[in-house]
Amino acid sequence: MPKQQEKNKTIEQKNYEKLQAKHELKRPIAKNCVKAFLVGGLFCTVGQAISYIYIYFFNFTEQTVGNPTSATMVFIALLLTGFGIYDRIGQFAGAGSAVPVTGFGNAIISAAIEHRTEGFVLGVGSNMFKLAGSVIVFGVFSAFVVAIIKTLFGMVGG
Amino acid sequence: MMIRICLQLLFIFTLFLSGCASKDDGKTERLALLKQTDPKPIDIIDTTDRNIGDEEAVKKEVKKNDHIYDVVIVKNGKDMLVAYKIKHLHRFKMKQVEKKLTKDLNKKFEGIHFIVSSDYKIFLEAVRLNKLLRENEIPREKAKKEFKQLVELKEEKT
Fold first, then answer.
1. Please, what is the end-to-end C-alpha distance for chain A in angstroms?
2. In sequence order, what DSSP letters do the residues of A42-72 get, joined into one string?
3. Mutual angle of helices B2-18 and A85-93, in 10-degree steps
4. Which of A85, A97, B143, B151 could pair covalently with A93 via S-S, beta carbons 3.0-4.6 A apart?
5. Do A64 and B157 touch (CB under 8 A)?
6. By three-state DSSP, how is residue B138 classified?
């Protein structure tokens, strides 16, 4: 099908594509990767520090510290998004700020802020999980699949 | 403006953290998660070093393991809590190490019930309890209660 599409293009279209290719700015992929790595790594370091704080000062073990740490990171991301700092971090770091759990917090609160003018129920309530909803759905589903695989392997392996 | 917000956030965060700094830890306990502490084994019933034969032998046995670099032992009657730290790059094998160590210790030292853990929290609390017992800063009954709580904490999953 793409070959057929290529054939059907007019000369003008082909010329335009050539012109576009000539003027198109090259994406600095390596630079973006380094930025994402550094900022994503920084978030993870902060997360590790928070989990150590929970272990050190509260009754959480390494086994149980994951949930409060994620919740705290999401909360920090909510604050930073509300103050408009996370947007700047996102512009600088790209995927480095979207992939960690803080990206989840950012997705929720930015959608909530965006739809605030439409009211609390139909605006904030119904649009808050517009993007984060897919994260929850696929997260739960993949956890379900992994649990089934683990159970099956457990039954086979004893 | 942004710097001001960042400073305010940092101040609030520090204020929250300062509320947590109530633990009466010495330098060894403060750095227990980062540095090697290697305290002497201790028995809650007899906190002197007179009848420490078994505990010392267990410690030597645990330290023979190549994956482990720091051990703390607290004994309470027939129960012995063995908390240790695993070398960072060996943490992938944490479960196997724990399983093998428990099996080896049970085989070698019959009549003792071992509670083996590689969790940082259990290690930290064991170091704290060890220090309090050594300095006679905790009554025996309270120490026994803390030991029991530590064993329960080790079993917690969520």
1. 50
2. HHHHHHHHHHHHHHHHSS--TTTSHHHHHHH
3. 100
4. A97
5. yes
6. coil
Distance CA B58, CA B53 (A): 9
Chain-centroid distance of CA B99 in Å reads: 18
Residue ranges covered by each domain of chain A: 29-157
The phi, psi pair for B40, rounded to 5°, reads -70, 145
ipTM score of complex: 0.79
- Are A55 and B121 an interchain contact pair (Cβ–Cβ within 8 Å)? yes
Other CB atoms within 10 A of residue A70 CB: 18
Give the ranges where chain B is alpha helix by DSSP (H): 2-18, 27-30, 53-63, 94-108, 120-134, 140-155
A113 sits in the region (left: phi over 0; alpha: psi -120 to 50; else beta) called: alpha
Short-list B112, B90, B114, B110, CA closest to B102: B114
Decide if B85 contacts A55 (C-beta within 8 A). Answer: no
Contacts of B94 (CB under 8 A, 6+ apart): B86, B118
The CA distance from A83 to the nearest CA of chain B, in Å, is: 8
B140: its two tokens = 């025996």
- Tens-digit pLDDT string for chain B (158 aa): 667 776 776 777 677 666 665 556 776 777 777 788 888 888 887 767 666 677 888 888 998 999 999 999 999 888 999 999 999 899 899 999 999 999 999 999 888 899 999 999 999 999 999 989 888 888 888 999 999 999 999 888 77
Q: Are A73 and A46 in contact (CB under 8 A)?
A: yes
In chain B, where the domains are located: 25-155
CATH number of the B25-155 domain: 3.30.300
Q: Is some CB atom of chain A closer than 8 A to the CB atom of B5? A: yes
- Alpha-carbon B153 to chain mean position: 12
